[in-house]
Amino acid sequence: MEKTWRWFGPNDKITLEMLRQIGVEGIVTALHHIPNGEVWTLDEVMKMKNYIEERGLRWSVVESLPVAESIKYGGSDRDGLIERYKESLANLGKAGVRTVCYNFMPVLDWARTDLDYQNADGTTNLYFNLAEFAYFDIHILGREGADADYGADTLARMDAEVTPRMDADARRRLVENIIVKTQGFVNGNISENDLQPVEKFRSLLELYKGIDADTLRANMAYFLNAIMPVCREYNINMCVHPDDPPMPILGLPRIVTCDDDIEAFLNAVPDPHNGLTFCAGSLSAGAHNDVTELARKYAARTHFVHARICRVLPDGDFRESSHLDPRLIDVIRTFERECPDVPMRVDHAPLMLGDGEMGYNAGYSFHGRMLALGMVSGIMATIDSEQK
Questions:
Q1: Is the pTM of this model over 0.90?
Q2: Checking CA distances to 354, which of 126, 214, 235, 328 falls within 20 to 30 Å?
């Protein structure tokens, strides 16, 4: 697989020169300075492409070309937004950038409750505490009927373990972790400049009142059918990111959570340019998913791989696991054998060796990802030697 790295543009503290030194071959990035729903002009696309190539690398994957909320919930302006999206795709195609990762998750891109969970070895990592998430939903967001979405054990743990320690600072950190810091750094709906993020978040949830999973699936198929002619003309592969976590949250429908969901959207738009970003981490955060079987089943329709893995705990919490987890090794073996040219990037690595002092985006450390890339590179080299 092609070894790629998510890079957040010229202002990223991790430079392209640094990435060349650690064996990165391709760059995964986006035009983060362009607001959601606006056209990526050919001039802006070429500026980024040239910037990357002048430093000896290539722009391998766009992550992400964001899909506007109105396209997802089927607003009155969605056709105009889709036309802009098609224009951006065409400009990427003219520049020779042919893999586009996107998601169709309503409102939230990904959700964690702790961005600095202390590991036993002194590193920190991302963590999802189901009882803390329930507290946010019920007591901070105040969503009507929220308590019915959680089991009795989770509610009991919330009352016993979470509520007693939720002072003003703890509540503020939970809001920042769930709806600000995990969202705002990549064209999210809420930024760190928003003075009332919870109120804004409530207004975003209101947009999806009456939108169920079937409606969201229909809207996704409508979007994909509209853009496929452009994808065919320029040979652009669209690859949707699985929902993270892969389950309904906050009363919102989620439609890329499991085997049945993946099969449904691939069959709804059977064009080979409609494919999957195989994020082993997102899929493994659901105990219902067997990621090794899913990798084998969908390798032919996978256009991009996120190499990470989660460990689901008995109480419904989940945490990032080692990049040497046997399940991830099996996933890498599948893609290295079945589609060796597919771009792959390591993801959500721990903060270590001073990473925490650098202000890196949550989940996107330098030393942690460098270690993960070394691990995955070794796995790939071993698999390649087995095939000789």
A1: yes
A2: 328
- For residue range 187-225, what is the model confidence (pLDDT) as tens digits? 566 555 555 889 989 999 999 999 999 999 999 999 999
Q: Could you give the CA distance from residue 243 to residue 255 in angstroms, rounded to a whole number? A: 7
Q: Tokens standing for 210?
A: 């009456």
* The one-letter amino acid at 281: G
Question: 């804004």: which residue's tokens?
Answer: 200
Cα–Cα distance measured from residue 28 to residue 212, given in angstroms and rounded to the nearest whole number: 32
> Do 111 and 178 touch, CB atoms closer than 8 A?
yes
Tokens of 22: 């650690």
* Residues 153 and 131: beta-carbon distance below 8 Å: no
Residue 242 corresponds to which amino acid? P
Q: Give Cα separations from 274 to 101, 221, 244, 255, 281 (angstroms).
A: 11, 10, 20, 15, 21
Catalytic residue list? 241, 279, 306, 347-348, 364
Q: Phi then psi for 352, rounded to 5 degrees?
A: -155, 160
pLDDT digits (tens, 9 = 90+) for 138-189: 999 999 999 999 999 999 999 999 999 999 999 999 999 999 877 655 556 6
If you write DSSP's letter for every residue of 175-237 in order, what string do you get? Answer: HIIIIITTTTTTT-SS-TT-S-HHHHHHHHHHTTTT--HHHHHHHHHHHHHHHHHHHHHHTPE
- Nearest Cα to Cα of residue 227 among 116, 367, 68, 114: 68
